[in-house]
Amino acid sequence: MSLSGKDKTVVKAFWDKVSPKAAEMGGEALGRMLTAYPQTKTYFAHWSDLSPDSAQVKKHGATIMGAIGDAISKIDDLTGALSKLSELHAFKLRVDPANFRILAHNIILVLAMYFPADFTPEVHVSVDKFLQNLALALSEKYHKMSLSAKDKATVKTFWAKVSSNGAAVGADALSRMLVVYPQTKTYFSHWKDLSPGSAPVLKHGATVMGGVADAVAKIDDLSAGLLRLSELHAFTLRVDPSNFKILSHNILVVLAIMFPTDFTPEVHVAMDKFLAAVARALSEKYR
Questions:
Q1: Which of 20, 93, 220, 248 is most buried, with most CB under 10 Å away?
Q2: Which residues contact 83 (CB under 8 A, 6 or more apart)?
C-alpha cells in the first residue's frame, strides 16, 4: 500500500501546518500510549517518571516527532532514511515492531485533536498510510533476524512429525484465535457459524495449515514463495497484517498442546522464528 504522489503532497502540506506544535504533540501521543497501552511501558522501565506530563515523556515525544519530520523530508525513500533507526530498534532496543503501529495510532488521535478542521478524511487517509509505511520501514531490519540453517532443519524435522495432524492443528488454532481475540472475527463475518469446530472453521483451519506446509517447503525464499498469498491478503481480503502474528501465536499454543514432548525449547524458538518470518513475508505486499 505505497504512498501515491498525491499522498506525499498531502502529508507534506499538513506537516507544514503542524510542525510548530510537533514536540508538544509528540509528548501528548507518547503519554497517551503509555496510559492506554500500559504494556508499552516495558521499553521505558529505566525512566524515573512515566506519567503523561513527565519531562522524560515530553522529551522523548519531541524526539519521536523530530524523527517523523525528518522522515517526511525523505518521504521518497523511507527505508533508506530510517535504516539506522530500524537497526537501533531491532538489534539494540529490541522493540516489538507491533508497537510502532500502536504509537502511530496515538499520533493520529493527537493530530485530530489539535487540528480538527485540517484533519479531513483526505488528510487522515494520507497520514495514516504514511505512518503505516514509516512503521514498515522501521521494521525493515527485523528481516535480518533470519532463519539459520539449523532453524530450517529443526522446522522441517518437526513439521515431518506433525504434518499429518495439520488440519486438526489449524482448526484448533483458528478456533482459539476467534474466541481469545474476538476482533479477528471481522474477517469471517460472512460465515454462518464462527463457533469452535464449525464446518467453516474446520475447512479454513486446514487451508491455513496447507499454507504453512507450503511455506515449509519454500523455507529458503518465503517472500517469493508466499507472494500470491501476500497479494491476496493485502489487496483483496485487506487483512490487517498484525493478525498474522495473532494466528501464529495460536498455532504455537496448539502445537505445544498436541506435541508436548516434541515441542522442546529448541523447536519452540525455531518454529517461532519461522512463523514470524512467514508473517513478514505475508506482509510484503503491504509496503
A1: 248
A2: 140, 141
**In this model, does residue 76 exceed pLDDT 80?**
yes
* Residues 103/29, Cβ–Cβ less than 8 Å: yes
- Cα separations in angstroms, 192 against 97, 108, 168, 195, 197: 34, 35, 21, 9, 13
Give the three-class secondary structure for 218: coil
Angle at 228 between CA 222 and CA 232, to 5 degrees: 125
User: Which three cell numbers mark 237?
Assistant: 481480503
Q: How confident is the model over 11-40, as pLDDT tens digits? A: 999 999 999 999 999 999 999 999 999 999
Q: Could you give the C-alpha distances from 247 to 118, 176, 276, in angstroms and in order?
A: 38, 9, 10
What stretch of H or E contains 194? Answer: none
Three-class DSSP category at 197: coil
Q: Give, in order, the Cα–Cα distances in Å from 210 to each of 205, 207, 216, 249, 269.
A: 9, 5, 10, 17, 21
Q: Report the alpha-carbon distance of residue 232 to residue 204 in Å, rounded.
A: 15
Tell me the three-class secondary structure of 108-168, residue by residue: HHHHHHHCCCCCCHHHHHHHHHHHHHHHHHHCHHHHHCCCCHHHHHHHHHHHHHHHHHHHH
- 166-221 pLDDT per residue, tens: 999 999 999 999 999 999 898 888 999 999 989 999 999 999 999 999 999 999 98
C-alpha cell at 211: 499454507
